[in-house]
């Protein structure tokens, strides 16, 4: 495979952009080698600067659930740009998308649009603090909620009472207000809550984790968190930036039948444009300025081009429930194929999959939390990644990422992925 143009671009990029990329994981550091530079994408395919074609399993980390450059979204965007690019003033479209989100996501009564998932989670936490008058939050080890200071906290082993900054630049004061618990460990959460009575504003989690690879909530975990939050007056925030509009029309909360107080959204909600949102109970959302005292604003929030893309995407999903059947079938077909290959080859790696999200972990042990995800053989994943890339399959370049399927993948594409996976496994374990 010739990737010489990508190599040249990456060399140049490093002179002007930190690490040569605008978001760290894109640099391929976790898997070795240099990133490929993308020129275009259509449907299930993505093309690099050297003209190589790949089948898409990243899909912009989730948003491209209908496949790339979907005609309806293209048309909505090109219609919208005829009327200028930004007004910084209210528009009809914002009302329509808010109404649509409220109708699709069961727990959301009011919603505010922002420009990224990071903004959504930062703002949701601020509102929860304003609403409760409390400072601390609980997050889970291995969950990612964007790069807001409060969330860049890694836990030590076990439940810890006080965080320490994982990233330089996060002040100790902020870190001390973020408590961390192991995912899927209700008891640890209860202990944290007991040790910090009346001080915890919010508990935030990915209801299905994508950011330590795909990790599912154990039975009763989400319900248990809901109960603890109710008992202690803690705002339960489901971060559905990845799972929203993906695991069902109403996200993971609909799929698992759990009602959060606040929800954060991103990715699919913008149809590929920079959009995020946070919403939930009207009683809490009414704390947001100008309805209430918690300040949050944005020059480009509700941007008309982004809203046109998002509104068209959500309308399509709302009106085509068969999308979710297709995504379920695609995910299950892939998982069955991968499992059949592993059985045939006598390999016992762990495949976590739910609907159109999955991760193949290079460990024989069940992956239910961050330590078990980290027990994976990371160099082996790196080899697997390149073996797949060489076979024309474009995957997230880290063991700690979920793959995202789109409805543009036909049975023939899925069979190609299953065949590539089997060949890659043979190659890397030889
Ligand atoms: N929350 C979750 C669950 C995410 O997966 C991400 C991004 N992958 C974010 C928040 C942050 O979103 P963004 O990158 O749009 O800021």
UniProtKB/TrEMBL annotation:
One of its GO terms (cellular component) is cytoplasm. It is an enzyme of class 5 (isomerase). Its cofactor is pyridoxal 5'-phosphate. It comes from the Bacteria. GO terms for biological process: protoporphyrinogen IX biosynthetic process. Pathway: Porphyrin-containing compound metabolism; protoporphyrin-IX biosynthesis; 5-aminolevulinate from L-glutamyl-tRNA(Glu): step 2/2. Belongs to the class-III pyridoxal-phosphate-dependent aminotransferase family. HemL subfamily. Homodimer. This is Glutamate-1-semialdehyde 2,1-aminomutase. It comes from Dyadobacter fermentans (strain ATCC 700827 / DSM 18053 / CIP 107007 / KCTC 52180 / NS114). The gene is hemL.
